[in-house]
Amino acid sequence: MKKVLLTLSVCAATTAFLAHGAFAQGEGDKGKKKGGGGGKASFETMDTDHNGSLSLDEFTKAKEGRDPDKVKAMFKKIDANGDDKISKEEFEAAHAKRGEGKNAKGGAGANQ
């Protein structure tokens, strides 16, 4: 029984380690498919017309499958200056703020 528990513990730890590494590098499903991962890569992926900002349409397409009202509210929250587009700076600031909230609550990355 001890061998079984030890084997399961090692498998769980390995899986957690590998999953954390993939998502931390923006290689998780969200980052690859829809630009929902963190940082620069997702902004550039979402900015389909390559004008340096995200329109509501681009943002909505990147968040496909989510509640449209919540996506619109998220867009308005990230659009700090209210010009109906999200600049790269606004996007990065929102992600940095989101990361700080996770760390303050003891979430992912709190002990790094």
Gist?
Helix content is 63%, strand content 4%. The chain is mainly α and 112 residues long. It has 2 domains: 1-30; 34-107, Orthogonal Bundle (Recoverin, domain 1), CATH 1.10.238.
Q: Estimate the mean pLDDT confidence.
A: 73
CATH topology heading of the largest domain: Recoverin, domain 1
Derived structural class: mainly alpha
Number of DSSP helical runs: 6
Q: Can you tell me the overall shape?
A: extended
CATH class of the largest domain: Mainly Alpha
Oligomerization state of this entry? single chain
The strand count comes to 2
H-E string = HHHEHHEH
Helix content: 55-70%
N→C terminal distance: 34 Å
CATH superfamily descriptor of the largest domain? EF-hand
Portion in strands: under 5%
- Second rung of CATH, namely the architecture of the largest domain: Orthogonal Bundle
Strand order in the sheet with the most strands: 1-2
Largest sheet: 2 strands, antiparallel
Residue stretches low in confidence (pLDDT < 50, at least 5 long) are 16-39, 107-112
Global Rg: 18 Å
**Total separate domains:** 2
